[in-house]
Amino acid sequence: MELSEQEIIRRESLAKLRELGIDPYPAAAFNVTRSTAQIKEEGAKPEQKLSIAGRIMSRRIMGNASFFELQDETGRIQVYIKRDDVCPEGDTTLYNTVFKKLLDIGDIIGVEGYSFITQTGQLSVHCQKFVLLSKSLRPLPIVKEVDGKIFDAFTDPELRYRMRYVDLIVNPEVRDTFLKRTKVINTMRQYFNEHGYMEVETPILQSIPGGAAARPFITHHNALDIPLYLRIANELYLKRLIVGGFEGVYEFAKDFRNEGMDRTHNPEFTVMEIYVAYKDYLWMMEFTEKMIEKVAIALHGTTEVTFGDKTFNFKAPFRRLSMTDAIKESTGFDITGKSEDELRAKCAELDIHVDKTMGEGKLIDAIFGEKCEHLLEQPTFIIDYPVAMSPLTKRHRTEAHLTERFELFVGGKELANAYSELNDPIEQRERFEEQLKLSEKGDDEAMFIDNDFLRALEYGMPTCSGMGIGIDRLTMFMTGQTSIQEVLFFPQMRPEKKSESQSE
Questions:
Q1: Environment class of residue 27 by beta-carbon count within 10 Å: exposed (0-12), middle (13-18) or buried (19+)?
Q2: Are 294 and 384 in the same domain?
Q3: pTM for the whole thing?
């Protein structure tokens, strides 16, 4: 491995530390009693001993006394270090050699001392003892500001996503996005728990990838000698639990879809799905909008959320608009009763690209996607989808050609999907068989027939409503991020190009 000059110097420092009997990676724990945030909240307390740990982010060496900036999970604080305080026995090696020459920006150290106010009025920590906890062998891309201009900022998206660990160190605002993501999930979990619903786990490896129309990832189980799929949805397993007698279950799940990547799609993503017995999609709409309202308030203290130059209001209730009316509003075309040939002809007229594998449901979805979605800025429930678009959904109670389904759209993007769940096993089998015909036509996203799920339905599933919501996309809206990669710690990336030295 070819090393840079800085990397060589740091490895030489590492060797010298060991020669001095200092372990650069000690096994012993370091007792941290305060975070930088706690110190700032408490203010100066010279009489109270404390210990903090973190990464050196800047240094000002000034002879026998110096300053450095220490960063932990909660922020940064200035530390004052004086030779005579850390070298009380007269041996100045620890200060003159270790601190001044062998420590670097990026090294992680523990500091014992007390908080005080400097002569310039800055809250700081007076270091009385320090210990090296981890030697950094690579230099950080430290941001510099000269005459109001920023230099060496770590802003390249590909580098930031590929080396998120560096991104989190040098761009503190990134950490805030992920703290908010956790708050989104915790707020939702608290909301479900308050209603008495149970959090569960279902299989990621599945013999049949059911519950959605998507292309799966496939793998092979050696011991059983069978193909397995990474789940595209957890829906069918959660509904099995409703059959089994649980009346409210939810899961925060990793799902996988073998599709393209863009600013709103990652092949591995997080979804929350919830199923509640004896409820329908009308109840679920109210439940969903109240949940999202709570999330907005938890993060922002208000239902109004700014996203770029737009403001979205998540105050319940949200607008409701049928799929048929949405398409009619934007195109003047009424999809009611239209055949596949008529829909295909309309797509051609509207200059919407389709192919021969697409059935009635996908043709309607193409029209809606091209002509309607981008118009749905404020939170809007699109309701009452055609049967062909919703193979797992109960037929509408008054319009037999429709289903009791809604999707929530915000900023032109789908955020949630929900049904009154189909619980008639005979009709469900017929719907699966229609999907099989689409698969035979070449639609690689058509659903499989899941015979075990059908068997479960034959034991009886109560009236039930289910809802799935994309956690990544919800976090994007709640944190003002325009790319899904900004809300995933480690988004999927293209393989890193190897240098010539690496490939040899």
A1: exposed
A2: yes
A3: 0.89
